[in-house]
Specification:
heterodimer, A: 659 residues, alpha+beta, Four Helix Bundle (Hemerythrin (Met), subunit A), 4 domains, four-stranded antiparallel sheet, 63% helix, globular, B: 154 residues, mainly alpha, Helicase, Ruva Protein, domain 3, 2 domains, 6 helices, rod-shaped
Chain lengths: 659, 154
């Protein structure tokens, strides 16, 4: 009964979405307030129905109802409850349901918190949002229904893929989807602005919180996915330039550009057309990502949807929405008036430069991801585009961006003084040069690029700190004055500095791990030891252990540093009973922000095992930096400016949604 | 979910996971072994999705790793090893495609977009100062404004 109710709720959500697609727009045309307001009600109720459908599927999973085909395929009665729960979205159908859940959640949030949006804008936004929702409800109901029953229910399920039985699955997909789908709001706002043919700085202020929320979620989602891959895949890499990773990186790059261009639009009423285009493109990239992963066009997704009907369905959605939005853009954008002028050397100029580099980086990833597919489709020739290509092309685009980054926030709007800014960045620059010199001397003749990488990271972090030192006057003014100034600064200023500092942290982690990781591949018998960096590791032997739905063969290692035992590490081979599959569970030991990492091979008959041991210096900074970036986004989001409306053009919007 | 998809696929290939590079494959000469590892990171395990032979535990990856080390011990240069592998397995084995006419767009996109973008911006900015001046006040307007403001020193 419950799955049928869930199914029915989804159909009702579709019906509401169809109403919401038309009614508010008609309301705007006929100036009918009641019709315009209808959009808000349908958005809220729609979310209620989708949430019900989602809860129904979760219930089927938690109760191990194997009469539901989706539950049978992906769950097992012996799995721990947390994995029964996360299995809900650990498969194609369930993950699409999570997708529309988040989509309808954002629609409902706009309806609930957008009370002060101009009525016509809100009506149009909700209508566009409903178009997207309708398309995806139809997709689920026609090609990916998670509520289908089996005629002869089996006694036991086939279990979730063992690699996915990990806490990562509880965090990574929801955050990633919050990011992907969150950009749909920016898309809807852009489409609504184009439909109205009118756009001003207030628009940018309305849309900015939504962009921030999506960007923060995507940042955390990508970071979580990267960390998960790092410990799960067992060879210590943290980014593989896999098409599925690129699919999430592209909206992030475009979204970061959007975040910055929206600032220019909000403050200076400039870059309007470009911002609208970016809003459209960012969500389009989310849709392309969904298409790439869901359609099976990438060879890497055999395991997922391979059914061509799904691929074609998503392709149609993709073409209609991207094509439609770009068509609308081409038709209506000329109506939008350009605003504020600025000199090339100015805050706006710096943000334009940021956009140029981020867009280029995004295009590089897009072309690199699609090129092999296109080439094979057109000529039948097969080439590979992998990490060595992306490292070579992506780096040179990102390095100038990072070099320019500390200058941006220090430049004045309209017309900046580059020499003045350079003077204020003297301390950061000197620190960076010092860092380069120290590393060069210490590493003489070895790593050639590493010192400059470290220098760049120091410059980026130092630049963010200098910015705040400058603004608070902490070393120039008396303590009390500086504190008062620090309190008086808008939160978004702190947010910018924090996010930029986070980038520096991530870069520092990347440089250190890339250049100074130690790796040791050895064969060890029980009782034998090996040394990695200053750690002395002794293999004690293999012990079995029984888990809830798996058997472990644990290899015990004692780790000593300077003669003293600092801990035990227990990598294992884990055999899952239900699928008769074995995974390698690596062991991590965190020392400060560095990690020791052990991954084991198969045991030989004489009791020896092949072991890969890594020492990863400062590796945690890679993800910590991302958390700091997201924290910076949060600070910006809590800025008063985003809660209290703009004084003049947005007088109607006295209370603006914070999120 | 993208990452998840990758994991699922990787797992499908790793039914019996083992270590990628095993101790018995490794060469005694550390310099030669370092070259082998560096080369391995450029080569695709062709039955895998986007995995280097250095990372993969598929049997094919093992075979190619051994082959690379075999060629290196016989005194091949890095380029000779790559050429040999391409002649045997095709361009598909290279994770960094060579620059040719059919990969021109692939390699050209980043510099191309940067140059086009920079030129576009330059052109826009060259035009803008003129626009800015035109938008400014002329002498008559300035006097009028001073009148409105009720002072002569605007």
């Amino acid at each position: 009964m419950i799955p049928e109710l869930g199914h029915y709720a989804l159909v009702l959500a579709l019906a509401l979405a169809l109403v919401q697609s038309v009614a508010p727009i008609v309301g705007v045309r006929t100036r009918d307030d009641a019709l315009m307001r209808l959009g808000s009600s349908t958005a809220l109720v729609q979310f209620g129905f989708v949430a019900f459908a989602f809860a129904a599927l979760v219930t089927s999973y938690l109760t191990s109802d194997f009469s539901v085909a989706n539950v049978y395929e992906n769950s097992h009665s012996l799995m721990p409850t947390i994995y029964k729960f996360t299995s809900t979205w650990g498969n194609h159908e369930g993950s699409m349901l999570l997708w529309v859940l988040i989509l309808s959640l954002f629609g409902a949030l706009v309806a609930a918190f957008g009370i002060n949006l101009p009525a016509t804008l809100k009506a149009n936004v909700l209508a566009v949002q409903a178009w997207i929702a309708s398309a995806f409800y139809l997709f689920i109901l026609f090609t990916s229904n998670p509520f289908l029953r089996l005629a002869n229910p089996p006694f036991e399920g086939r279990a979730l893929n063992p690699v996915l039985q990990d806490p990562g699955l509880a965090i990574h997909p929801p955050f990633l989807y919050l990011g992907y789908v969150g950009f749909s709001i920016a898309f809807s706002f852009a489409a609504a602005a184009l439909i109205e043919g009118r756009i001003d700085a207030a628009w940018a202020r309305f849309v900015r919180p939504w962009i921030l929320v999506a960007w923060m979620a995507l940042t955390l989602g990508i970071a979580m996915g990267s960390y998960w891959a790092y410990y799960e895949l067992g060879w210590g890499g943290w980014w593989f330039w896999d098409p599925v990773e690129n699919a999430s990186l592209m909206p992030w790059l475009a979204g970061t550009a959007l975040l910055h261009s929206a600032v220019v639009m909000e403050k200076r009423n400039a870059l309007k057309i470009w911002t609208i285009l970016l809003a459209v493109l960012t969500f389009s990239l989310s849709l392309i990502g969904t298409f790439l992963v869901r359609s099976g066009v990438l060879t890497s997704v055999h395991a997922f949807a391979n059914d061509p009907t799904r691929g074609i369905f998503i392709l149609v959605i993709l073409v209609v929405f991207i094509g439609g939005a770009l068509g609308l853009f081409a038709w209506r954008a000329p109506l939008l008036k350009q605003g504020g002028l600025f000199a090339p050397i100015s805050r706006e100029g710096a943000l334009v430069l940021n956009n140029l580099f981020l867009t280029t980086a995004c295009l590089t990833v897009l072309v690199g991801t699609l090129y092999p597919i296109a080439l094979e489709a057109l000529t039948g020739e097969k080439i590979s585009v992998g990490a060595p290509f992306f490292n070579l092309t992506f780096g040179p685009v990102f390095i100038p961006l990072l070099l320019a980054m500390p200058f941006g926030p220090l430049l004045a709007w309209k017309r900046g003084d580059i020499y003045g800014v350079a003077q204020r960045l003297m301390a950061a620059g000197a620190l960076a040069i010092l860092a380069v010199a120290i590393v060069l001397v210490a590493q003489y003749g070895r790593a050639t690029l590493a010192p400059f990488g470290i220098g760049l990271a120091v410059f980026v972090m130092g630049g963010a700190v200098s910015d705040m030192v400058e603004r608070t006057g902490v070393f120039r003014l008396p303590g009390a004055t500086a504190r008062a100034r620090a309190r008086g600064l808008p939160r978004s200023v702190w947010g910018t500095a924090a996010a930029h500092f986070g980038i520096g942290l991530t870069l520092l982690g990347i440089v250190c791990v890339t250049h100074w990781s130690d790796e040791k591949i050895v064969e060890l018998k029980p009782g034998e030891s090996t040394i990695v960096r200053h750690y002395h590791l002794t293999f004690e032997g293999i012990v079995p252990r029984q888990g809830p739905n798996y058997r472990d063969q644990i290899a015990k290692f004692t780790v000593r540093s300077g003669g003293a035992v600092v801990g035990e590490m227990m990598p294992s081979k884990r055999t899952f009973v239900a699928r008769d599959m074995t995974t390698t569970e690596s062991a991590l030991m965190t020392r400060g922000v560095s990690q020791l990492y052990i991954s084991i091979g198969d045991a030989r008959s004489d009791g020896s095992i092949a072991v890969r041991i890594y020492y990863k210096p400062l590796v945690l900074l890679i993800w910590l930096g991302a958390v700091v970036m997201a924290f910076g986004g949060g600070l910006s989001l809590s800025d008063r400016r985003l809660r209290v409306g703009a004084p003049k053009p947005a007088a109607r919007a006295a209370m603006q949604p914070a999120e | 979910m993208r990452r998840v998809a990758a994991l699922v696929f990787l797992l499908a290939l790793h039914i019996v996971p083992a270590l990628a590079v095993t101790p018995d494959e490794m060469l005694k000469d550390p310099a030669l072994e370092a070259r082998a590892r560096a080369l391995s990171k450029q080569l695709r395990c062709m039955v895998c999705q986007n995995e280097t032979i250095d990372d993969s535990d598929a049997p094919l990856a093992h075979d190619i790793r051994v082959l690379v080390r075999d060629r290196l011990t016989r005194g091949d240069s890095d380029k000779q090893v790559i050429d040999f592998l391409v002649s045997r397995y095709g361009e598909f084995i290279l994770l960094r495609p060579r620059f040719e006419w059919r990969t021109a767009v692939l390699w050209g996109v980043a510099p191309g977009v940067l140059v086009i973008g920079a030129v576009t911006l330059f052109v826009i900015w060259r035009r803008r100062p003129a626009a800015a001046e035109a938008a400014g006040l002329d002498e008559a307007e300035r006097r009028k404004l001073a009148d409105y403001l009720g002072s002569g020193d605007s």
